[in-house]
Amino acid sequence: MDYRKEAERLFENLRIIYTLPAQRKMLSLTRGELCVLTSLIVHGNSTPSELIGYTDSSSAHIAKILRNLESKGEINRMKDTRDGRSVIISITEKGRRQVKEIYDSIIEYMTAILRQLQEDDTASLLRVTDRIIGIQEVAE
């Protein structure tokens, strides 16, 4: 088996799946915005530098994302009471609703896809993706 060729095929398949119109339609946020909102849900209130670490983004990119999310009313900025030079970012109820709607939409879409694959193919897909995750965790 030519593993490089198969890796290229897998990469292309995942790229196509990710860029299908149905996927883009579900995401009313950029990936960076969704990543920041999800990080705030998982980690709670955070500083911009913590968000940089959680999202593996640059400070300029985080600054832009935070401006966009704040203008949409999905985050709040508060002065850090421990350090007046810093700010704390929190997610608003509107931001939480936005993430939940996107999550629910993606899960609904994936459920429809898995139903078309049927039980055997779904079990195989999950077994293989679980295995890939296990391999990645060992490699890190």
Outline:
With 140 residues, this protein is mostly helical. Helices cover 74% and strands 7% of the residues.
Question: Can you tell me about this structure?
Answer:
The chain has about 140 residues and is mainly alpha-helical. The protein has a single domain (about 5-140), classed as Winged helix-like DNA-binding domain superfamily/Winged helix DNA-binding domain (Arc Repressor Mutant, subunit A). The protein has helices at about 5-20, 20-25, 30-45, 50-55, 60-70, 95-140, and strands at about 75-80, 85-90. It has a two-stranded antiparallel sheet. Helix 4 (about 50-55) packs across helix 5. The longest helix is centred in the last third of the chain and has 47 residues, at about 95-140.
Task: Detail the topology: elements first, then pairings.
Layout lengths: L2 H17 L1 H6 L4 H13 L4 H8 L3 H13 L3 E5 L7 E5 L1 H47 L1
Antiparallel strand pairs: 1-2
Helix pairs in contact: 4-5
Number of domains: 1
Residue runs with pLDDT of under 50 for 5 or more positions: none
Class inferred from helices and paired strands: mainly alpha
Highest-level CATH class: Mainly Alpha
- Report the total helices: 6
Strand order of the largest sheet: 1-2
Number of strands: 2
The fourth-level CATH homologous superfamily is Winged helix-like DNA-binding domain superfamily/Winged helix DNA-binding domain
Tell me the CATH architecture.
Orthogonal Bundle
Helix proportion range: over 70%
Instruction: Assign an overall shape.
Output: elongated
Helix-strand sequence: HHHHHEEH
Question: Largest sheet, if any?
Answer: 2 strands, antiparallel
